[in-house]
């Protein structure tokens, strides 16, 4: 570890992807997971230096390809399967699509992922949903990581510059995560060191004083080629369309990969992130005191000059892979996070008088917090023979521990007056003198589980993937002075999927898994709701229409008991900023998904998807209506040929159906909604030389007005207006 920190501090930038070199022939299963191999449909042989892979062609990372076509994925089952061989719906946002759309954060990427919808709670908290329910399962390089849904430590807001791609498996993935979440599991795949020296420097400018600078360097260390490193550094700042609000982000990432022996590979890495928002706050009030809807412009805000939010996270990780002569791979991975959190703000609740602008309530808060998290993962996977056929198996054990201490300070003495709220702006308010901080959430969450999965070759065209996981979950928490302990032991999560290859291009599948999902929502008395239980079913068809063009269709159904549903107008006792929930029985989600992704023709990439997800209560009422039932997303780009080869142009559209929320209004519970809408984006990139290029991204071409949030604490938030960004990149 000492060598890593010396290099990191001396170079002060960060690095990417290294191709393992070792003699001999071995199967796909012996390729390191950390290389995140991408597999094409063709069976060919690839030889690079002394690395020889038979059976399928591999590409180390999606950034080494200019395609939207996905490769192999281990996010669903821990086995390195092609998308076609995985009995679930899997989508991959590749490096090329991230680059074309100019996506600068992991949240931006998720928002563009097929089947994923986004809504916000306030200036810094975003909620992502798939198949009707919130996504709460995340992985980093396949290592499951718990996410604090209420306290925002930036887990889903990392800069996109450190990722090669993001994989989204929709449906339950309890086999790897222990949480049989019926929405989706998201796997962030980090960049790795490249085989040869490469460096890129890029700068962005855009609307709202957008300024961004990124440096990315990858280099071998020494002459042997057995060790390589990559460093990435990013500074990103901008004002926003919201009055008084601006963001400032700083991200650093470094990784070293070394081949210690011909059979052992190790990666060491560190990530650092600091996010700062000045002018942080909630949304604007959606009602006047007389019950009529407000009609503020898109700069409307509910903040102050002194309100601020920050999170600071440092994550160090080590990933070791060892390859046995029989084709098996052993992996051990460890990650340690330290996080700091701060939020100082005034929350204005209630409803302003249309004429006097008075009447809103005030909640002053100064939060500070610390988090320490450790993730440990051991796996073994490889081939075996049984009854004259070759099969694959994987075994794993995962443990995560998340320790959190959140503290709150209130004003010392009388709080300042907040004046009025008129035309989407609040009167200036002085920052109060703060009293001493007292703990409000002191918790320790420990999750562990062991799993086993096998892919049985029942016949040449028929494969069964079956697995089981045994999980433990324990929370010890003092929440606003109330000590509570929750634990669940020996929870069994079975998984089964059957894949049939009709021919080399078409396959069909069915899959089933049971659900066990803890939930971080509370009843009116402040107690956590019991875990969700249920079942998830899926049937689908996958087709390779061309060498790099895939069609995926899926029909799904999940059944859930104990699901938390927000109680309109109700808060947790004594907590004006915490929504209260109740458990529901017999909730179901039924839906359909279609995705066409890949290369339509040389230079022409496409990612198109349609999703229908209908979550309903036992009584047949719509649930989770703050997320759309239907979505359609399309983005395509084309690189011209011959004399126009330097030019790439593209565009896309994002459409979603109506969303609404039953929220508290002046006259009681009132429904507020955002009708269906579409947003159109365009891009163009021109390469002046092999090293220098410029790119324009025009988002929200027609300047569509829409709500990003409706009715959360009776407030709203406008989506971003039209914006233009220019990027310049130089490759060394």
From TrEMBL:
<dbReference type="InterPro" id="IPR012910">
    <property type="entry name" value="Plug_dom"/>
</dbReference>
<keyword id="KW-0732">Signal</keyword>
<feature type="domain" description="TonB-dependent receptor-like beta-barrel">
    <location>
        <begin position="258"/>
        <end position="701"/>
    </location>
</feature>
<dbReference type="InterPro" id="IPR010917">
    <property type="entry name" value="TonB_rcpt_CS"/>
</dbReference>
<feature type="signal peptide">
    <location>
        <begin position="1"/>
        <end position="41"/>
    </location>
</feature>
<keyword id="KW-0798">TonB box</keyword>
<dbReference type="InterPro" id="IPR039426">
    <property type="entry name" value="TonB-dep_rcpt-like"/>
</dbReference>
<dbReference type="InterPro" id="IPR036942">
    <property type="entry name" value="Beta-barrel_TonB_sf"/>
</dbReference>
<keyword id="KW-0406">Ion transport</keyword>
<keyword id="KW-0408">Iron</keyword>
<dbReference type="Pfam" id="PF00593">
    <property type="entry name" value="TonB_dep_Rec_b-barrel"/>
</dbReference>
<keyword id="KW-0472">Membrane</keyword>
<dbReference type="GO" id="GO:0009279">
    <property type="term" value="C:cell outer membrane"/>
</dbReference>
<keyword id="KW-0998">Cell outer membrane</keyword>
<protein>
    <submittedName>
        <fullName>Outer membrane receptor for ferric coprogen and ferric-rhodotorulic acid</fullName>
    </submittedName>
</protein>
<keyword id="KW-0813">Transport</keyword>
<keyword id="KW-1134">Transmembrane beta strand</keyword>
<comment type="similarity">
    <text>Belongs to the TonB-dependent receptor family.</text>
</comment>
<dbReference type="GO" id="GO:0015891">
    <property type="term" value="P:siderophore transport"/>
</dbReference>
<dbReference type="Pfam" id="PF07715">
    <property type="entry name" value="Plug"/>
</dbReference>
<dbReference type="GO" id="GO:0038023">
    <property type="term" value="F:signaling receptor activity"/>
</dbReference>
<keyword id="KW-0812">Transmembrane</keyword>
<feature type="short sequence motif" description="TonB C-terminal box">
    <location>
        <begin position="715"/>
        <end position="732"/>
    </location>
</feature>
<dbReference type="InterPro" id="IPR037066">
    <property type="entry name" value="Plug_dom_sf"/>
</dbReference>
<dbReference type="InterPro" id="IPR000531">
    <property type="entry name" value="Beta-barrel_TonB"/>
</dbReference>
<dbReference type="InterPro" id="IPR010105">
    <property type="entry name" value="TonB_sidphr_rcpt"/>
</dbReference>
<keyword id="KW-0675">Receptor</keyword>
<dbReference type="GO" id="GO:0015344">
    <property type="term" value="F:siderophore uptake transmembrane transporter activity"/>
</dbReference>
<keyword id="KW-0410">Iron transport</keyword>
<feature type="domain" description="TonB-dependent receptor plug">
    <location>
        <begin position="83"/>
        <end position="183"/>
    </location>
</feature>
